[in-house]
Each structure stands twice: as structure tokens, then as C-alpha cells.
Amino acid sequence: MSPTPAPVLHKAAEPPAARRSVDFGRPTLVTRGPRWSLRLDVRTAVSCAVFLLLTLAVLVVTLAYGTYEIPLPDVVRALYGEGPAGTRTVVVEWRLPRALLAVLLGAALAVSGAIFQSVTRNPLGSPDIIGFSSGSYTGALVVMLLTGGGYYQVAAGSLTGGVLTAFVVFLLAYRRGAAQGFRLIIVGIAVSAMLGAFNTWLVLRADIQDVMLSAVWGAGSLNSLGYDQLRPVLALLALLIPSALACGPALRRLELGDDAAAALGTRTETVRLVLVVLGVALIALVTAAAGPIAFIALVAPQIARRITRGSSVALGPSAVLGAFLLALADLVGQRLFAPVQLPVGIVTVSIGGLYFVWLLVREARRT
User: Fold this and answer.
1) Whether the Cβ atoms of residue 109 and residue 300 lie closer than 8 Å to each other
2) What are φ and ψ of residue 68, in 5° steps?
3) What is the dihedral of CA 293, 156, 211, 201, to 10 degrees?
4) Pick from 136, 86, 83, 141: which is nearest to 109 by CA?
5) What is the pTM of this model?
6) Euclidean distance between CA atoms 139 and 150, whole angstroms
7) Element (H or E) spanning 41, and its range?
8) With b meaning 16 or more CB within 10 Å and e meaning fewer, what string describes 12-44?
9) CA–CA separation, 191 and 185 (whole Å)
10) Per-residue pLDDT tens for 210-239?
11) Rounded CA gap, 300 and 303, in Å?
């Protein structure tokens, strides 16, 4: 009679729990379940939380101060649907959609910039620099000046122009089986310059009223935007930004190089195509809603990387910082020369230009 085998004891699956660990000297929170795990860098989480609070503070100040100043308690009551009707109209109907658009469009710009900087593996690989913003602007300008289309026609033209420009840039930069980062930037600058000349030609041939409208819009402005623009922007970003964040792990693998990413099971060309389409769609959406807003896509991912001390550009922190920067820039544009309101694009160009010069000097010293 054979001996009875000892019972095999299986360790029960531990319930999901968060614990603190150290990964390459960086404290992280790890949450594990039976078939999944989530790692969250503590510094990144704290940085995002701080900038979310700062963004909320900027929103409150934006809602409270203007030509008609409203005490903060009245702002809170108006958001809850209480208080005088005039106060609710100013806060909820006039100021709130513009403030929310600044946050949403800033996040979209930053995510688009982070995508292209990661794809090109270069801090200058922003849609502002490599011509995709110019392509979106050209597409929207063609619709505005030649066909006189409405908001959705301008949005479609902006998306079409951005996609066609991306296709041309990647086609011209394609060499030895891939579009190399530095070559992509140089080709993008050249294409952007040609599109700028074409845009000037369009403006010179257009009617004066259309030119004045396109000039205000072309500066990148949130003036006069309301719920009619907020609703479609919110709906599209609810689809685009989660899709981009879902591609984050594949994007980090692409930063290792195509060979390493392919060895890890990533379909490099497919992932790169999806990311480029998402990045162009984000920048086209911003251009269609508010015009070309420069330098947020360039600056936000790099500042977020330095604050979080990450080894690569991360989409989440970039989105949070981009939302804060554009909301702050819009507040500065409204209040700096009040009652005259500056287009937010002028503020971002003024601030971003200084950063761009610093970045170029820094890159030149490295080489």
C-alpha cells in the first residue's frame, strides 16, 4: 500500500494591496492583484497632485477676477447653482467654459508634444517645430478663407492638413527603413517654412474681413469660446487622451530603439503610426478650437520630465503640467493689460521663446 502523498498547500492569492518599494533608488507604490500589478512612482504622483492643485487654484482665480470681480464664496455658490442670477451667468456661462478649455487644450498640446518627442527621441521633436502645427493651421486656413466653412468644417480641414503634413514629413525623412529623429526635425522645419509662405499667400489674396478674423484666430486665442466649442473638444479628448495613455508602455519601449522594442514584442511601425495619428489629431483639435498655440507642446513634456526626474518623457505628468501652463498663460493674457485681453498664443510664445533659446544653447553645449 503506497503512502498517502502529503497535501500540497497552495498560497492563497493575496488581495490587492499597496505597498512601498524601491526601484532604482526611487520610492514607488506597487498595487498587486491576482493577475495584475500597478507601479506608481511616488515623486511623479506627488508632482502631478501639486500641479493639479495649482491648476485648480488658477481656475478659481480665473473665475473670480475680471472686469466684474466676484468674491470667492460667491464663485463657489454660483458653481453649485446658487446665488444671484447675474453672478451665475458671469461665472458659469461666460468664464467657466473658457477656463475649462484652457485646461483641456493645454493637456492635449502637452500629450501631443510628449508623443512626438518620444517618437523622435529628441527634445526638439515638438509639433510646433516639425511642422504638424503649421499643417493643421494651413488646413484650417484653407477652409476659413476659401470655403467659409463653420466650426466642424474648420476642424476637419485642420485634421486633414495635419495628417497630410505628417505624411509628407515622414515620407521625406524616411531613410534606411526608418524616419530618424534628427532628420525628421530638419525636414519638419523646412516643410513648416514652406507652409508659412503658403499661408501668407492665402492671407494676401483673401477678403479683408476674412483676413482680420483669421489673424485673430491665428494668434491662438481663447477669447469668445464657450460651450459650443467645449462640448466637442471634451468629447473628442475623452477618446484621444485615454487612447494615447494606453499606448504609453509601447511608447517607452520604442524609446529603447526599434530592435529592442521588436524583441519585446512591439509592432514598431504599427505603434508608431498609431501614435503619430493620435498626436496629429490632438494638435489638430487644438488648432481647430483656438488656433495655433505655440510652445506648450515643446515646453511642458521637458519641464515635467525634469520635475519628476524621469528617464523618459511621460504622458501623464506632461498632460497635467500642460493644463496648468495654458491655464496660467490665459490668466496672464486676461489680466496683464486689462481691460485689453491678449491672445493666449502671444503669452505662450513670449515665455516659450525664452525656454527654446535656453534649450538650443544646452543642446549645442552637449554636442
Assistant:
1) yes
2) -115, 105
3) 90
4) 136
5) 0.84
6) 13
7) strand 37-41
8) eeeeeeeeeeeeeeeebeeebeeeeeeeebeeb
9) 10
10) 788 787 778 888 988 889 889 999 999 999
11) 5
